Amino acid sequence: MPNTDPNITAQIETFTRQLVTTVEAAVVKRIQAALAGAFGVPQKRGPGRPPKQAVALVAPVVAVAARKKQICPVPGCKNLAAPVFGMVCKEHKGVAKSKIKKYREERREGKVTQARGAKPATPRKVRKTTPKVARARKLQGQYLGALRALAGADRASVKQTAAEKGVAEAVKLALSLKKG
Hints:
This protein is mostly helical. It has helices spanning 6-38, 52-57, 97-109, 131-148, 152-165, 167-179. The chain has 3 domains: 6-57; 68-125, no CATH class; 131-179, no CATH class. Helix 4 (131-148) runs parallel beside helix 6 and helix 5 runs antiparallel to helix 6 (167-179). It is elongated.
């Protein structure tokens, strides 16, 4: 750069020296903070919230507190509870919520100690409905739906027909009254 102004050259050299000094100071701070964090020495800082750079530069080594495992509330059960089963164990996922609530209250009051030989509650068996029951329920639903659409004397006559001749006849009458 033979034709550059000496004033500009001096300014560039001054800026370069300041930039190098600033970068070196930041590197030294980062190294000190990393070493302090690695050896467990608490970082010295002044009042107020630290700047974002300082937080981003140092990854503090934090001991993660272990979560306390929750035990199933059913008396006698020593299995771990799981959120997927409503905070009871897999064996007791079918127990009624009201019973679970009662067990928790008793445990809080100290009335129940974990007995070893307690029998776990068995979930209720779900019975399939028979075709006859399914038809009766369907007919009852049709009857209630048809009755809801009627008012006054028509409604009373449909109810009387249901009592005398049966629900099927009442549904037929209600549908004919609804159309007419």
